[in-house]
Amino acid sequence: MFAALRLIGLAAVIVLAVLAGAWLAKHIGAFVLAYLTWALVGLWGLFTIFTFYFFRDPDPMVPTGPKLVIAPGHGKVDAIGTTTEPEYMGGECQRLSIFLSVIDVHVQNAPVTGRVAYVKHTPGQYLSALKSESAQFNENVLIGLQSAEPFGEKIGVRLIAGVIARRIVPWVGENDTVQRGERISLIQFGSRVDVYLPKRAQIKVNLGDRVAGGETVIAAFD
Questions:
Q1: Cβ contacts of 201-210, under 8 Å, gap ≥ 24
Q2: Where are the domains of the chain?
Q3: pLDDT confidence of 44, banded at 50, 70, 90?
Q4: Which of 132, 134, 147, 191 is catalytic?
Q5: Catalytic site includes residue 191
Q6: 68-220 classified as CATH 2.70.70.10
Q7: pTM
Q8: What is the per-residue pLDDT for 111?
Protein backbone atom coordinates (compact mmCIF):
# COMPACT_ATOMS: atom_id res chain seq x y z
CA MET A 1 0.00 0.00 0.00
CA PHE A 2 2.79 2.39 0.91
CA ALA A 3 4.52 1.77 -2.44
CA ALA A 4 1.28 2.51 -4.27
CA LEU A 5 0.82 5.78 -2.39
CA ARG A 6 4.38 6.79 -3.26
CA LEU A 7 3.75 6.18 -6.96
CA ILE A 8 0.47 8.09 -6.84
CA GLY A 9 2.16 11.00 -5.04
CA LEU A 10 5.04 11.06 -7.52
CA ALA A 11 2.60 11.07 -10.42
CA ALA A 12 0.71 13.96 -8.81
CA VAL A 13 3.94 15.96 -8.42
CA ILE A 14 4.80 15.38 -12.08
CA VAL A 15 1.32 16.42 -13.22
CA LEU A 16 1.44 19.56 -11.07
CA ALA A 17 4.93 20.41 -12.37
CA VAL A 18 3.78 20.05 -15.98
CA LEU A 19 0.69 22.19 -15.34
CA ALA A 20 2.75 24.84 -13.54
CA GLY A 21 5.24 24.88 -16.39
CA ALA A 22 2.46 25.21 -18.93
CA TRP A 23 0.85 28.05 -16.93
CA LEU A 24 4.17 29.90 -16.69
CA ALA A 25 4.93 29.35 -20.38
CA LYS A 26 1.48 30.67 -21.34
CA HIS A 27 1.77 33.85 -19.28
CA ILE A 28 5.45 34.50 -20.02
CA GLY A 29 4.81 33.91 -23.72
CA ALA A 30 1.83 36.28 -23.66
CA PHE A 31 3.93 38.94 -21.88
CA VAL A 32 6.81 38.59 -24.37
CA LEU A 33 4.47 38.76 -27.37
CA ALA A 34 2.57 41.72 -25.95
CA TYR A 35 5.43 43.86 -24.64
CA LEU A 36 8.87 42.56 -25.74
CA THR A 37 8.49 41.52 -29.38
CA TRP A 38 9.80 44.74 -30.90
CA ALA A 39 12.45 45.13 -28.21
CA LEU A 40 13.84 41.67 -29.04
CA VAL A 41 13.67 42.37 -32.78
CA GLY A 42 15.47 45.66 -32.19
CA LEU A 43 18.21 43.98 -30.17
CA TRP A 44 18.67 41.40 -32.91
CA GLY A 45 18.90 44.20 -35.47
CA LEU A 46 21.55 46.04 -33.42
CA PHE A 47 23.52 42.81 -33.04
CA THR A 48 23.32 42.21 -36.79
CA ILE A 49 24.58 45.73 -37.55
CA PHE A 50 27.43 45.38 -35.04
CA THR A 51 28.43 41.98 -36.42
CA PHE A 52 28.63 43.30 -39.99
CA TYR A 53 30.55 46.35 -38.71
CA PHE A 54 32.97 44.21 -36.70
CA PHE A 55 33.76 41.89 -39.60
CA ARG A 56 34.28 44.74 -42.08
CA ASP A 57 37.29 44.24 -44.31
CA PRO A 58 38.27 47.44 -46.13
CA ASP A 59 40.77 47.38 -48.99
CA PRO A 60 43.95 49.10 -47.76
CA MET A 61 45.78 51.79 -49.70
CA VAL A 62 49.17 50.07 -49.57
CA PRO A 63 52.19 52.42 -49.77
CA THR A 64 54.64 51.70 -52.57
CA GLY A 65 57.97 53.00 -51.28
CA PRO A 66 61.05 50.74 -51.03
CA LYS A 67 62.15 48.91 -47.87
CA LEU A 68 59.02 49.81 -45.88
CA VAL A 69 57.30 47.87 -43.12
CA ILE A 70 53.60 48.58 -42.73
CA ALA A 71 51.28 47.96 -39.81
CA PRO A 72 49.84 44.44 -39.85
CA GLY A 73 46.85 45.49 -37.73
CA HIS A 74 44.49 48.37 -37.02
CA GLY A 75 44.69 49.93 -33.57
CA LYS A 76 46.79 51.90 -31.12
CA VAL A 77 50.54 51.55 -30.64
CA ASP A 78 51.00 51.08 -26.91
CA ALA A 79 54.45 49.50 -26.64
CA ILE A 80 57.76 50.08 -28.43
CA GLY A 81 61.04 48.65 -27.21
CA THR A 82 63.54 45.83 -27.34
CA THR A 83 62.82 42.23 -26.42
CA THR A 84 64.12 38.72 -26.95
CA GLU A 85 62.18 36.54 -29.37
CA PRO A 86 63.96 33.18 -29.64
CA GLU A 87 61.44 31.19 -31.71
CA TYR A 88 61.78 32.98 -35.05
CA MET A 89 63.86 36.14 -34.65
CA GLY A 90 66.56 34.16 -32.86
CA GLY A 91 67.39 36.64 -30.14
CA GLU A 92 67.20 40.32 -29.33
CA CYS A 93 65.04 42.46 -31.60
CA GLN A 94 62.68 45.39 -31.58
CA ARG A 95 59.03 44.92 -30.59
CA LEU A 96 56.11 47.14 -31.52
CA SER A 97 52.72 46.24 -30.05
CA ILE A 98 49.32 47.29 -31.42
CA PHE A 99 46.16 47.00 -29.30
CA LEU A 100 42.95 46.26 -31.23
CA SER A 101 39.74 47.30 -29.48
CA VAL A 102 36.41 45.67 -30.31
CA ILE A 103 35.61 48.54 -32.72
CA ASP A 104 38.82 48.19 -34.75
CA VAL A 105 39.15 46.21 -37.97
CA HIS A 106 40.29 42.71 -37.03
CA VAL A 107 41.75 41.52 -40.33
CA GLN A 108 45.56 41.55 -40.38
CA ASN A 109 47.80 42.37 -43.35
CA ALA A 110 51.29 41.32 -44.36
CA PRO A 111 53.76 44.01 -43.24
CA VAL A 112 56.21 43.20 -46.05
CA THR A 113 56.41 41.31 -49.32
CA GLY A 114 58.13 37.99 -48.83
CA ARG A 115 57.83 34.34 -47.85
CA VAL A 116 56.09 32.86 -44.84
CA ALA A 117 58.99 31.04 -43.22
CA TYR A 118 57.44 30.10 -39.86
CA VAL A 119 53.98 29.56 -38.38
CA LYS A 120 53.40 28.36 -34.81
CA HIS A 121 50.23 28.21 -32.71
CA THR A 122 50.75 28.32 -28.94
CA PRO A 123 47.83 27.50 -26.60
CA GLY A 124 47.48 29.69 -23.54
CA GLN A 125 45.27 31.83 -21.35
CA TYR A 126 42.79 34.56 -22.32
CA LEU A 127 43.95 37.48 -20.19
CA SER A 128 42.97 41.02 -21.09
CA ALA A 129 44.73 42.13 -24.28
CA LEU A 130 44.85 45.64 -22.79
CA LYS A 131 48.05 44.50 -21.09
CA SER A 132 51.00 44.46 -23.48
CA GLU A 133 52.56 41.58 -21.54
CA SER A 134 49.58 39.35 -22.43
CA ALA A 135 51.73 37.94 -25.27
CA GLN A 136 53.68 35.98 -22.65
CA PHE A 137 50.64 34.09 -21.39
CA ASN A 138 47.80 34.21 -23.91
CA GLU A 139 47.00 31.92 -26.80
CA ASN A 140 48.81 33.23 -29.87
CA VAL A 141 49.98 32.49 -33.39
CA LEU A 142 53.46 33.58 -34.48
CA ILE A 143 53.96 34.18 -38.21
CA GLY A 144 57.55 34.63 -39.34
CA LEU A 145 58.14 36.42 -42.65
CA GLN A 146 61.32 36.49 -44.69
CA SER A 147 61.34 39.83 -46.46
CA ALA A 148 62.00 40.19 -50.18
CA GLU A 149 63.12 43.81 -49.67
CA PRO A 150 65.58 44.04 -48.05
CA PHE A 151 66.13 40.43 -49.00
CA GLY A 152 66.24 37.94 -46.16
CA GLU A 153 65.30 40.27 -43.30
CA LYS A 154 63.17 38.59 -40.63
CA ILE A 155 59.86 40.16 -39.59
CA GLY A 156 57.68 38.48 -36.97
CA VAL A 157 53.94 39.01 -36.45
CA ARG A 158 52.37 37.58 -33.31
CA LEU A 159 48.56 37.39 -33.22
CA ILE A 160 47.38 37.39 -29.61
CA ALA A 161 43.99 36.38 -28.21
CA GLY A 162 42.27 38.28 -25.41
CA VAL A 163 39.39 38.00 -22.94
CA ILE A 164 36.79 38.17 -25.71
CA ALA A 165 38.97 37.25 -28.68
CA ARG A 166 39.23 33.48 -28.42
CA ARG A 167 39.75 32.51 -32.01
CA ILE A 168 42.72 33.30 -34.23
CA VAL A 169 42.31 32.38 -37.89
CA PRO A 170 45.59 32.48 -39.88
CA TRP A 171 45.09 32.47 -43.65
CA VAL A 172 48.67 31.63 -44.59
CA GLY A 173 50.98 28.68 -44.11
CA GLU A 174 54.69 28.02 -44.26
CA ASN A 175 56.30 28.67 -47.66
CA ASP A 176 53.38 30.79 -48.86
CA THR A 177 54.37 33.98 -50.70
CA VAL A 178 52.64 37.20 -49.60
CA GLN A 179 52.54 40.72 -50.92
CA ARG A 180 52.81 43.78 -48.70
CA GLY A 181 49.29 44.61 -47.51
CA GLU A 182 47.84 41.20 -48.37
CA ARG A 183 45.34 39.79 -45.87
CA ILE A 184 46.98 37.14 -43.71
CA SER A 185 44.70 36.50 -40.72
CA LEU A 186 41.68 37.35 -38.60
CA ILE A 187 41.41 37.72 -34.83
CA GLN A 188 37.82 37.74 -33.60
CA PHE A 189 37.00 40.60 -31.18
CA GLY A 190 39.41 42.65 -29.03
CA SER A 191 43.00 41.50 -29.24
CA ARG A 192 46.65 42.45 -29.85
CA VAL A 193 49.24 42.19 -32.61
CA ASP A 194 52.98 42.30 -31.87
CA VAL A 195 55.52 43.06 -34.59
CA TYR A 196 59.15 41.93 -34.23
CA LEU A 197 61.75 43.85 -36.22
CA PRO A 198 65.52 43.59 -36.64
CA LYS A 199 67.48 46.04 -34.52
CA ARG A 200 68.58 48.03 -37.58
CA ALA A 201 65.01 48.83 -38.65
CA GLN A 202 64.04 52.47 -38.11
CA ILE A 203 60.74 52.84 -36.21
CA LYS A 204 58.52 55.49 -37.82
CA VAL A 205 55.65 55.69 -35.29
CA ASN A 206 55.33 56.79 -31.69
CA LEU A 207 53.55 55.54 -28.61
CA GLY A 208 49.88 56.42 -28.75
CA ASP A 209 49.71 56.63 -32.54
CA ARG A 210 46.76 54.98 -34.26
CA VAL A 211 47.75 52.84 -37.22
CA ALA A 212 45.80 51.30 -40.09
CA GLY A 213 46.60 47.76 -41.14
CA GLY A 214 48.01 47.56 -44.62
CA GLU A 215 48.51 51.33 -44.82
CA THR A 216 50.52 52.96 -42.02
CA VAL A 217 54.32 52.79 -42.34
CA ILE A 218 55.64 51.66 -38.96
CA ALA A 219 59.30 51.10 -39.87
CA ALA A 220 61.80 51.29 -42.70
CA PHE A 221 65.23 49.92 -43.58
CA ASP A 222 67.34 52.95 -44.52
A1: 201/69, 201/94, 201/153, 203/80, 203/94, 203/96, 205/71, 205/77, 205/80, 205/96, 206/77, 206/80, 207/77, 207/78, 207/79, 207/80, 208/76, 208/77, 208/78, 209/76, 209/77, 210/75, 210/76, 210/77
A2: 1-54, 68-220
A3: confident
A4: 191
A5: yes
A6: yes
A7: 0.77
A8: 95
